[in-house]
Amino acid sequence: GTGKTSLSKALAHKMSIRLAHLCKNAVMIEIHSHSLFSKWFSESGKLVARLFKHIFELVEDPETLVCVLIDEVESLTSARTNAMNGSEPGDAVRVVNSMLTNLDNLKVTH
């Protein structure tokens, strides 16, 4: 409601323009947090793995600027909090942990 997503998209667009001399391509990947959770047990972790496999493939190209926007990220943190309180299934914890681990790996890799 405050325009965080719109601001993030505008910033990514501005970065792609400013860095055009370094990066021929620019890609923005928008992750909707609710789409990472599946009703099927252990399927959520596979969704996260497929998503980050695609992101890592894009990042491999040094001429591509990759911006990742995680929309409604607060739903991930609430899922983790609820899981710690025992009110959320264990699969939610795995999704959040997988997201955090992959984001850390993405940061370290590039």
From TrEMBL:
Query: Would I find Nucleotide-binding among this entry's keywords?
Result: yes
Q: Which InterPro entries match?
A: ATPase_AAA_core, P-loop_NTPase, Pch2-like
Give residue ranges for domain ATPase AAA-type core: 1-108
Q: Which domain of life is it from?
A: Eukaryota
Could you confirm whether the keyword Nucleotide-binding appears in this record? yes
Example of a GO MF term: ATP binding
**Which terms does the UniProt entry file under GO BP?**
meiotic recombination checkpoint signaling; reciprocal meiotic recombination
Q: Which GO terms describe its cellular component?
A: chromosome; nucleus
> Which keywords does the record carry?
ATP-binding, Nucleotide-binding
UniProt cross-references to Gene3D superfamilies, sorted A to Z:
P-loop containing nucleotide triphosphate hydrolases
> Per its record, how is this protein called by name?
ATPase AAA-type core domain-containing protein
Which source organism does the UniProt entry give?
Answer: Octactis speculum
